[in-house]
């Protein structure tokens, strides 16, 4: 068996063992998760949060728990949720997630939450919703005319939205900042895959983003704050194991390099 | 003549979008809203053109090898079936379209994406080596971030999460900010070139 196969087996073994055995390493609450939690906590019942599923299906295991934790918090507080997607693949994933979470919290479609579906050309969609949401989404994802839904009648533009949460695996929150925040003053939170966090921290420091919830670690911390461990918390043991293995591999690779250099110097 | 018309249309739209941002006149705002709806309509047509182009490309390749033929059948077949499911059965939660997305597309895509972890692991072992002082600094920073961003790092020592946060919020952020400023300046310069009619690569390089 070659090195590559051994590394593949080790990674598969560690991740599988962590998921099956669930050692339950303690998960601390990060500052970023706390900030986003407090932001949603400060909203009142009946306020409106727009959750945009701006991701592809491939990143669902990482960003799905982020969207679920935020939706749970909103439904728990009786905050109304308007869902949509600016990536085609996020459409079905977002609808599935919100339907499941709303069902668990007893939220009624039309009154407590609606799902607008997908619109192509995200720049035009984000700018257009600042002028008129019914103009951009004449009907919801189910094909119902938006004006016939009680919540649909209430949300006409960004003035009626208290917070936008972009659940994203790429650069979509940039467009939310550039068009919805800069032009219409809309408050934006980015719930991101971990690898994207550094790209958005400048926006957070400039006050253009109200908060960042980073990756599975952010979802796990948020679940701790909600006192309801879910997919984020379950995944953290596997992520910890994989990171430790990667660190060990980096160290092992460098020891091998050091030894080969020493052999060359002292043959 | 066709190019000149396209450049004039792009310049006019660019000037209109800039002016309406600063001037609050009803006719400008109405034109702005009209342009936004046109953008969506154009993009929707572009999506159709894109899908048809991919299908045509796959069919054209199908004659080359058996492997290409299998790929073409799977790709075109999947595109047709999923479209048919959406048009015939709708997109509701209990629909066949939603079932296909949740039980076929999402698991397949996440599986392929997760394979990256295995290649990252082998790359970490084979390629991430401190051959110079600079790469040594990078290796140490990577180790701190790797361990500091997960619960096991917090469990080992509180220094690791603090170190990881410092690396991400200070040197990495400074570099990222510089890149973002560069991108912003580049976008502004390119936009001005398009409005002025100097930048014409969007016409297909003519």
Description:
The complex is a heterodimer of chains A (267) and B (206). Chain A is α/β, with parallel strands linked by helices. Chain A has 11 helices and 6 strands. The longest helix of chain A is centred in the C-terminal third of the chain and has 35 residues, at 231-265. The mean pLDDT of chain A is 92. Helices cover 83% and strands 0% of the residues of chain B. Chain B has 8 helices and no strands. Chain B has helices at 2-22, 26-61, 66-89, 96-126, 133-148, 151-156, 159-169, 171-196. The longest helix of chain B has 36 residues, at 26-61. Chain B is extended, with a radius of gyration of 26 Å.
How many strands, what sense, and barrel or not for the largest sheet of chain B? none
CATH H-level homologous superfamily name of chain A: Nucleotide-binding domain of ferredoxin-NADP reductase (FNR) module
- Give the radius of gyration of chain B: 26 Å
User: Roughly what is the average pLDDT of chain A, rounded to an integer?
Assistant: 92
Q: H/E series of chain B, N to C?
A: HHHHHHHH
List the helices and strands and how they pair.
The complex is a heterodimer of chains A (267) and B (206).
Chain A: H1 3-21, H2 31-41, E1 48-54, H3 60-76, E2 80-85, H4 88-105, E3 113-118, H5 122-131, H6 133-136, H7 150-154, E4 163-168, H8 172-184, E5 188-192, H9 197-205, E6 211-214, H10 215-226, H11 231-265
Parallel strand pairs in A: 1-2, 1-4, 2-3, 4-5, 5-6
Chain B: H1 2-22, H2 26-61, H3 66-89, H4 96-126, H5 133-148, H6 151-156, H7 159-169, H8 171-196
Helix pairs in contact in B: 1-2, 1-8, 2-3, 3-4, 5-7, 7-8
Précis, in short:
The complex is a heterodimer of chains A (267) and B (206). Chain A has 267 residues and is of the alpha/beta class. Chain A is 57% helix and 13% strand.
